[in-house]
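Table S2 (continued). Query chain:
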Amino acid sequence: MAKTLKTLKTFTLGLVFIFVLVLTAGFMSFAEGTEVTKTIIEGEESNQLKVTGIVTHNNLETGFYEVGGYRLVGDSDFSKYENKMVVVLGELDTSPSIYMTKAIKVESIEVVTPEGNTNNREQLEKQLANTEEQIESILENMPKYIEQYGEDSSEVRHYKEELDILYKDQENLRFELYKIKEASGEYPTLMELEGMVTHNTLEGGFYEVEGYRLAGDFDFSQYAGKVVRVTGELDNSPSIYMTRAIKVESIKAVNIEDEKNNLALQIKMSIVAIEDINKNMNSYIKQYGKDSSEVRHYVEELEILQNDVIHMLEQLVALDGKNADLGKYKELGRFLEKKNKGKGTISIYVNGEKLKFSVSPIIKNGNTLVPFRAVAESLGAEVSWDAKNSKVTMKKGSKEIIFLIKDKESFVNGKSVKLSVPAEIISGSTMIPLRFVSESLDTKVTWLSEGSVIVINEPVDK
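Corresponding output:
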């Protein structure tokens, strides 16, 4: 869920979230003029801060740049500082946020040298240890919080939200330490990822977890569609894939049912938070003004939560695979509709997995055209292209499908089948009618208008 060295996706009912203790301690230390966050900062009661750390891009959460857990706010182009160690001067932004999101209104930002990084290492390691101690301490107390307030109480929800913040701080600190060690030539810090193994068909294909290509001597195909925990070293070696990669040292499958239950719980919590913001948005606008920074923060938090729900729902249907409940896809479509804002962007899910392709599906003359190769290969078929005759051949088991570009006639095991519209090439990809996919590949295709979602499933017994 961001550019981090550790992705913590699995939450159990035993996870605990700190809110009151950390918040109280944070405000007390701030009032005393001491360290106010788990990063390298200098701050006084004037709210003026000096923050030193690596600039990272938070991609899954609305796309902003941050240093040590502080979102950077201002007119500067922060993209040019990505992955660089910087010193930021500015004022603490105390605008309200449902996640108590920290932000700094940047007055100046300067890059520091790798030599300067090593001077910060001891402080970073101390802060990381302190953060991990807080996480461990609160985790141990979660049963007491649940017993005291109730599992579905707002107090427990706040604890969980705050733990999420601590985990992000932990991830940022680890990333900063990694960059310092990398700059000094030390052996890289081990990464740990957790998520579903998916197959990316780009450039010959590879397996990945949470956006990281899996590299190493393991047979990753046996883990396809499974949730795994991976440890290894960040792989910076050149590759035609131009993607982040992890050189895998160990890979282990985790319990699917536990993962599904945890995802369902997180989705429920996020939806409750979304409903709470929507319910109170008019009062926020009335109190602060429509164009105020406070309202912008609430709008941003709303986008964060909606993107998180989409990501978690996609994980959930992927875990369900062919057995995915259509209701989950409808819920996914509802949030995709909000995200796409009626743009009609089409998403395709094959046996639960979201397809990635260079050319997006389109609607033409009332027919939905989809990229044939991407769909066919995701179903385990082999596709070949005869450029001389503009002919496409697909083979899967005993079935062979042949069709020509710009010709309505196709052949399935030698039998002529008419297409509603002919196949055509768009930006180098062969596009065919969605109905043909269902009829020729023995799949069930469902079109959900809200969110423009296409669900393609093989029979469960296949």
